Amino acid sequence: MRSLIVEDDPRIADDLAATLEASGFFVERAADGETAWFKGGTEEYDVIVLDLGLPLMDGLAVLKRWRAEGITIPVLVLSARGTWIERVEGIDAGADDYLPKPFRMEELVARVRALVRRAAGRAASVEVAGALALDTTRMTATLAGRPITLTPLEFRCLAYLVLHRDRPVPSTELLEHLHGGEDGHEQNAIEALVARLRRKLGPGVIETRRGFGYQIVEG
């Protein structure tokens, strides 16, 4: 899953990035409101963690602009301003969730995962597709009850396919959400990644729909 952290405090941003990366997210960062507004409006993210106290443009203004422009990416707002009035203001501006500072990193990760699941039309932390079961909290996978050993990148790829199993996922979309479209990552890297997953999962789990992309088989 591809995430954007918008936080101007380097120490907090480092902690957030390390936590989300350890939880299976590809992380990008922005340290001011203008950069955040641009990245959120031009890039594809699965979730955004947004601090309100930002330089150049405050987080609430950024959020209002995104929503006015039709940007529907799930947003978790962080703020030291924790009164109920301020929380209501954040939700009314378009936030999907609100977490006052200080907070536990475990709670932040749980809330971020919930936002990603809901955005994909899913609710449970354990996703089941045929014989495949994926636990997005423990970052584990089983096939017919048998544990499957996955690297962090393989898990992220499989999780994205499972969360979006109702449709084929183009390789370009996988590239964006796994690597952020970074230079040096090509389409053949996605093909190699899917090939490794197929060797571990066996045939009939990940289908290639030519011209459309990859899709998890649920039958």
Automatic annotation (TrEMBL):
Residues 123-218 form the OmpR/PhoB-type domain. It holds the Pfam family Trans_reg_C. One of its GO terms (cellular component) is cytosol. This is Response regulator transcription factor. Coiled coil: none annotated. SMART domains: REC, Trans_reg_C. Residues 123-218 bind DNA. Gene3D superfamilies: 3.40.50.2300, 6.10.250.690, Winged helix-like DNA-binding domain superfamily/Winged helix DNA-binding domain. One of its GO terms (biological process) is regulation of DNA-templated transcription. It comes from the Bacteria. The modification 4-aspartylphosphate is found at residue 51. It comes from Pseudorhodobacter turbinis.
